[in-house]
Amino acid sequence: MKIELNNKKVIFINDHNKTEIHPIWLRERVRDEKFLDKNNDQRLFDPSFLNNIIIKNAKINNNILDLTFSDGITSKFDINKLTSEFLDTESLSNTVKQKLWDSSLKNNPTYKFNENFSNSKDMFDLLKSFYKYGFVIVKNVPTENNYIVNFANSIGSIRPTNFGDFFNVRSVPNPNDLAYTSLALSPHTDNPYRKPVPCIQLLHCIESEVSGGFSTLVDGFKVATYLKENNPEYFKILTKIKVKFKFIDKDVILENKGELIELDKKNNFKQIRFNTRLDYVPLLEKNQLELYYKARKEISNLYNSEKFRIKFKLAPGDIMMVDNHRLLHGRTAYDTNEGKRFLQGCYIDHDSSEGKLRHLKRKFNL
Ligand SMILES: [Fe+2]
Asked: 323 by DSSP, 3-state: which?
């Protein structure tokens, strides 16, 4: 990777590909005081009004590109910075590589809470692990006064829902959700009916006196990869059909649609949805539905199989942070006669955690 000049054209060379960098692309990145507010890195001019910009003069010295543009502006550019932007090295996917896992995962990524956790190197490492594995566990978090709210807000901003800023998970009479019973919960993603679907779930164990009630997690991207390799037809239909998810309460009706396996434009995994208590597939041709139902059955079997599921017990003080767009979570049943089981949960968005990760990367110069 390098940048070279060719008759006042700036050429970016990556392997054997040569690309001329558009003069406006460079002109709008002029960082001199007159053009950029140093406090917030925002432009002090509107580059959409620039036109017919060409490069009048160009030289390279010691990794600095020195340009004079046709509107008379002269500026210096750090070639390393330009290269980094060109290659998108600062993006999350280039900062953290996902590691897909199944039940052979040996050690759960675990961190210990301390008073100065929020802006520490530990928090940076935690967020990196979170994006690598799709979950982390934080031990010894204070359990008093709904501390989960403080914890969530120390990463970013809590995402309130119609349940409020946070929700309590314990068995109650006449529950409006199966979470508030003592029944086993098979692996699912939370709230696919919300728009947008909450990105990250935090669950804080406050009390745990029962012998059951184990937490379960499944890496949805790993299962989807397995399905793609072993049954491409099933995989394909689950990535194509948008399913409606619906939640009905006495005060609200929530609804959203999405694929059980959502891909981005480059066919990378974007989001998993799975909640078979609330999904309504559209009325398609019978043979299409036949295939869809077989595919859903297969992926459900995979999500519920021992091959992919990990199981562990949260202790009082533990916070489990789960990527709700990638992982499925559940729990085993428990016996309310054995004692109390009480967890508190809330949501934050990737906006928060990615923003914090970038900030800490900058802070520690990593
Ligand atoms: Fe849940």
From this structure: strand
